Amino acid sequence: MVPAATRAASRGARGGKGPVGPGASLRSVQAAMEKFASPGKGNGLRSSKAVKPGELLYRAEPFAYTVSKKRLGGVCERCLRRKDRLLRCSQCKVARYCDVRCQKEAWQDHKRECKCIKSIEPNFPPDSVRLVGRIIFKLLRQSTCPSEELYSLSDLQSSK
């Protein structure tokens, strides 16, 4: 699953070659990428090999994401596909999914949010609050994602 913004940016890059293309092991990706610090700008990640324009370097699940309020109802909360008919979360009635598979895959990220949404009805939190909530809930369950091998969430904190 790749967020829409990443999908759009990498449309022409499917089928990349070499150690950094789709399906590459994290170890090979780490060998082809390097961390760096940019004074005044923070941490960065760059390729340590020549890269062709449009070449996909790395694909990973985002640590956290949310569907914007204006897109709710038309986009699956898990895979971000647009669909006319989506299944609705039976509890909060807000989250929508393509099918039962997407709903089950999203449950770990949605279950705490679902309780919160139900508890403040009829109000609804802004997108930024929903995103921060998802980050906090994921940190509370000490969940990680494969891309944290490249950079952890704490590496990205500017107050270190």
UniProtKB/TrEMBL annotation:
Residues 1-12 have a biased composition (Low complexity). It holds the Pfam family zf-MYND. It is an enzyme of class 2 (transferase). Keywords: Metal-binding, Methyltransferase, S-adenosyl-L-methionine, Transferase, Zinc, Zinc-finger. This is [histone H3]-lysine(4) N-trimethyltransferase. GO terms for biological process: methylation. Residues 76-114 form the MYND-type domain. The keyword Oxidoreductase does not apply. The keyword Zinc applies. InterPro entries: H3K4_H4K5_MeTrfase, Znf_MYND. It catalyses: L-lysyl(4)-[histone H3] + 3 S-adenosyl-L-methionine = N(6),N(6),N(6)-trimethyl-L-lysyl(4)-[histone H3] + 3 S-adenosyl-L-homocysteine + 3 H(+). Its EC number is 2.1.1.354. One of its GO terms (cellular component) is nucleus. GO terms for molecular function: histone H3K4 trimethyltransferase activity; zinc ion binding. It comes from Podarcis lilfordi (Lilford's wall lizard).
